[in-house]
């Protein structure tokens, strides 16, 4: 009689399979891993973006857009790439059928979270490297604080994506809901106007959103300080609320 695969071995097999499938999706790879760097390069080629501005505290606009591009990668992974995949698995009955096998559906969900988190973090590394080499953007002055902020931002982005999947019954619905949430998060992440350049009242409001708080935390780390407790607390709170909502609302079929 064949032995039942250990849960850990089964989870690793699912992760390898999902990684191969993810690598065969050029659109997802481009939007998550390449498009943030493309955005940064396009902006960096504009001369005014490379000029020092007194209104930005003696920094250049391109300096602010490196963390913006990092957050853009998280948005693409959490809202555009992951929810349609998970909703599609549920809609086609894959998660339900997995419930009757030694490989639990949670292994597939975990694999998706890991893959999209890794893709977003690799994209962040690429953005940082290109910003440094092509445009002379300084590396984060407080690296531990920057890493903490980046990990929390990644967790919050994936929790938001999981919530979108949880409230969407079909793959098309997940795409529609993800797109509807996509544009407000783009604004709060500072894609159109960096959060640091927003009027004071608007900036204070935006910094209480998941990506606005992430932008503040990354900026504080970039300038050499440990991210403030308000920004970190807002990120932790949003992650907990979104993750809790996703767990309560998610259905395997």
Automatic annotation (TrEMBL):
Keywords: Antibiotic resistance, Cell membrane, Membrane, Transmembrane, Transmembrane helix, Transport. GO terms for cellular component: ATP-binding cassette (ABC) transporter complex. GO terms for molecular function: ABC-type transporter activity. Pfam families: ABC2_membrane (PF01061). Signal peptide: none annotated. Residues 27-253 form the ABC transmembrane type-2 domain. The chain crosses the membrane at residues 28-46, 66-86, 106-127, 147-167, 174-193, 226-247. It is a multi-pass membrane protein. PROSITE patterns: ABC_TM2 (PS51012). InterPro entries: ABC-2_transporter, ABC2_TM, ABC2_TM_bact-type, ABC_2_transport. One of its GO terms (biological process) is response to antibiotic. It is found in: Cell membrane; Membrane. Belongs to the ABC-2 integral membrane protein family. This is Transport permease protein. It comes from Streptomyces filamentosus (Streptomyces roseosporus).
């Amino acid at each position: 009689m064949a032995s039942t695969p250990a849960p850990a071995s089964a989870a690793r097999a699912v992760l390898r399979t999902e990684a191969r499938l993810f690598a065969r999706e050029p659109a997802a790879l481009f939007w998550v891993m390449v498009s943030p760097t493309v955005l940064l390069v396009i902006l960096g080629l504009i001369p005014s973006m490379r000029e020092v501005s007194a209104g930005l505290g003696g920094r250049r606009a391109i300096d602010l857009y490196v963390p913006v591009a990092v957050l853009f990668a998280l948005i693409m992974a959490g809202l555009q790439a992951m929810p349609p995949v998970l909703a599609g698995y549920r809609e086609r009955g894959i998660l339900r059928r997995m419930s009757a096998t030694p490989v639990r559906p949670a292994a597939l969900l975990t694999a998706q979270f890991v893959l999209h988190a890794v893709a977003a973090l690799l994209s962040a590394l690429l953005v940082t490297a290109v910003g440094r080499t092509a445009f002379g953007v300084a590396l984060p002055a407080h690296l531990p604080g920057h890493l903490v902020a980046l990990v929390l931002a990644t967790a919050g982005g994936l929790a938001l994506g999981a919530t979108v999947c949880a409230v969407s019954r079909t793959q098309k619905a997940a795409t529609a809901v993800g797109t509807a949430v996509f544009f407000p998060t783009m604004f709060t992440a500072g894609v159109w106007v960096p959060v640091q350049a927003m009027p004071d009242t608007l900036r204070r409001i935006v910094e209480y959103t998941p990506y606005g708080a992430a932008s503040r935390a990354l900026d504080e780390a970039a300038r050499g300080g440990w991210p403030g407790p308000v920004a970190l607390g807002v990120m932790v709170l949003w992650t907990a609320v979104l993750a809790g909502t996703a767990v309560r609302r998610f259905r395997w079929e």
